[in-house]
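Notes to self after the Tuesday call (sharing in case useful).
The group wants a holo model before anyone commits to mutagenesis around the pocket. I volunteered. Ligand is 2-oxoglutaric acid. Logging inputs and output together so the record is complete.
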Amino acid sequence: MSLSPAEVKQFHELGYVVKEGVYSHGDLEPLRVGLTAAIQESCDELMAAGKLDRDFAEASFAKRLTKLHRHGPDAAHEVLMAIWSGRFHGAGMLHALRHPLLIDCVEDIIGPEIVATSIYRVRPKVPGYPRGEVPWHQDAGYSLTHCYEHMMVTCWVPLVDATVDNGCLWVIPKVQDDGIIQHYTGGHSGFLEIAPEDVPEGAIPVEMSAGSVLFMTAMTPHASFVNKTDVTRWSIDLRYQDPSVPSNLGEVPEDYTPERDPVTMACFPGEAYFVIRDPKRPESELTDADEFATLRQLWDRATIQNRGPGRGWTPLEERGDSIH
Ligand SMILES: O=C(O)CCC(=O)C(=O)O
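Result:
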C-alpha cells in the first residue's frame, strides 16, 4: 500500500488526502490494548483512593470512557489526563507510529528518510467532555516561526469510525499555500485558535472509517466539533518530516541553553524527535518501545530550559485592533 500519484497530487493541491484501510483492526489492537491498560491503571488508582466506585471494564473500547464520564465526570477527567495528548507512550504507540503501510504513504510525500516527533496526540473525544472539541487552527501555528516553510505531515487516524455526529475532523482545502493565518491564545479549552472572522471559507467534514488516514500539511486549517453520540470518538494524530526539517536529533535537552538562537532549534522544542525510516542507516531507526518511552520522558517539555521565543500570538479577547 502506498499513495498513488493522483493521491500525492491531491495532497499538494488541496492540502489533504484520505487513504482508506491503512491500518487493519488487528494493526490497531496493540494500541487499544495499551490504552486500555493505561485506563485500567488510572481507574485502579482512583478506586483505591475512593474517588471511583466502578471501572466499566466490561464496556467496549468505544463506550467505556463515555460510561465512565457519565458516571463520574471528575474521575473520568483524571483518567483522560493520564492518556491525553502525548502523555501516552505505552505499549502500542511506537507500533502505531512505525506502521509500515502508513510510513510507505508518508514516504510518497516526503521521501525515504523519515523522522517522527512526540507531537503525537491521543484524543478520546468523549461525549459531553468539553476538551474534545478543537477550534480552527493550523498545526504550524504551534511551531517556531522558522519552520513555516517546511513540510510536516500530520496523519490523523480514527480508531473508531469518525462521522459528523461524533465529531470527525473538518478541513479547509486549497489554502495551505497562503501561509500562516493569525492565531490567538486562549481559544476553546486553551488551544490556539483562528478567530471566526479569519477562518477561510470552504470547510468540509471528513468522515472516515476506523484505520483510514487523513494526511494533511501543517498549514491546512482543521478543527473538530461536538460529539453528539454515545460513542467516544477515539483518534490519534502523528507527525512526520524529512531530516532537513529542524529537529533535535542527535541533541540532548541541555543543548537548549537560554542563550541559544531560536532559528537553530527544533520546530517544536521540548518534543522528542526520532528516526522512523532510514534505508541508508537502518540502525538509527527507533524500534524499541522502552527506548521510545525513555526518549519521550527525556524530552519532556518541563526539562527544556529554552523552548524558544513565544510565537507572538495574543489572547483572543484582545483581538479588537486586528479585526479587519
Ligand atoms: O482530533 C481532533 O479532534 C483534532 C485533531 C487536531 O487538531 C490535529 O490533529 O491537529
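Two things stood out.
The pocket of 2-oxoglutaric acid is lined by residues 123, 125, 134, 139, 154, 156, 169, 222, 224, 235, 237 (CB under 6 Å).
The longest strand covers residues 233-241.
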